[in-house]
Design a protein that fits this description.
single chain, alpha+beta, 2 domains, 4-stranded mixed beta sheet, 14 helices
Length: 431
């Protein structure tokens, strides 16, 4: 799929934040812990979810859409691990999170090595080191991981790296281990909190939700019919904030999970971005704090300090790229330090093709000079979700008609995005 984008216009209207891709992937994996029926409500219709559905189907799990956005998941009496859909598995990094649930079903099994975004090394060693503490031995082969767990046990674990999927994997492993497992230096990010609240509905006791120390009292047998509403996606809210700031538009962005956007909004405020929180309320799951944000045309200026990401409660690692198109419209020089990934900052210089003034200092840092008048061009989507979306944002600002080729990376994480943008005044055609 390619997109033809006529840019240069200001946008106006109302857009609603969808539920989280990352939460959906963790919760779909966690459904394998439950011998009862799981219903996940408000699941996004995106390619990443489709890949996980294909994987679960191949394991013998009955997965079907009920109503419009709800996913019903019913496990078989015995999972068929040897039938795992390898073609789908290698397309999503989330496949690694199946280790946590599957160790309770098999003493020995293999899963394909994950794919997903091409952002550098993205080591899985933190997963392996933590799982070893629980008695799980993992051997890395050329195309797969071979997992052996003859005797799993509870333990105290210090994470090698405070990663989201690492924390989720260990949470799912600990959920059915008798005794108490402690995870220190855990991620407290939104998808981890979503998983924690889901597990508590299954009867797993978890202390420290929202902190970096989690204490899990496992429940060896789980057979509980459960329904759970996914939380909204702060990364999608930030996408639309970036669209508004870059195109100098007036938008109302509804259902923004404010607890995971506060630092991003503060940085934007100090850049001169005008916005107002017009409503506060709870999400459908009764724990996500949501707000509606109205944005206004703004004169942006570069921050003197570098912009960089940190684990929650720092600026979200997935939100950092959205400051790149914003910086092209800010007066002065912005330094963005993307220290987490070896290759992601390299994708940022794709915006140079649109006329952006960006200097790649090294594989982690870019200097962006603005404001710059962006001009239309043709670009092939990089194979990474967030870098692909910032090219789309820049094209919405660029004068003229741009072509964005091969947008599968965007469809992995965003549902019906071109139509949603068209409803607020964008001019995008699928070609």
């Amino acid at each position: 799929m390619n997109l033809k984008i006529k840019g240069g216009a200001k946008l106006k209207g109302i857009v609603t934040t969808n539920t989280s891709k990352n939460s959906a992937m963790g919760l779909m994996a966690a459904s394998l812990l439950n011998k009862g029926k799981t219903v996940l409500r408000k699941v996004p219709h995106i390619e990443e979810v489709n890949r996980m559905i294909e994987i679960l189907h191949s394991l013998g799990v009955n997965v079907r859409w009920i109503r419009k956005d709800d996913l019903e998941i019913v496990p078989p009496a015995k999972l068929k691990i040897k039938n795992i859909n390898k073609k789908s598995a290698i397309k999503t990094r989330s496949i690694i999170m199946l280790i946590g649930p599957l160790i309770h079903e098999f003493k020995k099994f293999s899963i394909p090595q994950p794919g997903g975004c091409k952002l550098g090394l993205r080591t899985v060693k933190p997963h392996l080191f933590a799982l070893e503490k629980l008695g799980v031995n993992i051997k890395t082969l050329s195309k797969e991981y071979e997992i052996n767990n003859q005797k799993i046990k509870s333990s105290k674990i210090v994470l090698y790296e405070s990663g989201d999927t690492t924390t989720e994997n260990i949470l799912m492993a600990a959920a059915r281990i008798k005794g108490k497992t402690t995870i220190k230096l855990a991620s407290a990010n939104y998808q981890v909190q979503d998983l924690c609240y889901f597990l508590t509905k299954l009867g797993v006791k978890i202390k420290g939700i929202g902190t970096t120390t989690l204490i899990i009292s496992g429940k060896p047998k789980i057979k509980t019919p459960v329904e759970y509403y996914l939380s909204e996606d702060p990364i999608e809210s930030m996408f639309f904030l970036s669209v508004s700031a870059t195109t100098n538009s007036t938008l109302t962005i509804k259902r923004c999970p404010i607890d995971f956007l506060e630092l991003e909004l503060l940085k934007l405020e100090k850049m001169g971005f005008n916005f107002k929180i017009i409503k506060k309320y709870k999400g459908r799951n009764n724990f996500t704090n949501l707000v509606d944000i109205k944005t206004f045309p703004s004169k942006l200026k570069a921050l003197e300090e570098k912009i960089y990401a940190r684990p929650f409660p720092g600026l979200n690692i997935d939100n950092l790229p959205f400051f790149v198109p914003i910086a092209t419209q800010a007066r002065g020089q912005t330094l963005i330090h993307d220290w987490v990934y070896e290759h992601r900052a390299i994708y940022y210089i794709e915006l140079v093709k649109l006329g952006a003034k960006i200097i790649l200092a090294d594989p982690y840092r870019v200097y962006i000079n603005g404001p710059t008048r962006l001009k239309a061009t043709e670009i092939i989507c990089p194979s990474a979700l967030r870098p692909a979306t910032i090219i789309l944002i820049a094209m919405l600002k660029a004068q003229g008609t741009s072509i964005l080729h091969n947008v599968y990376p965007i469809n992995r994480g965003y549902e019906n995005l071109s139509n949603r943008l068209n409803k607020i005044g964008a001019q995008i055609k699928i070609i």
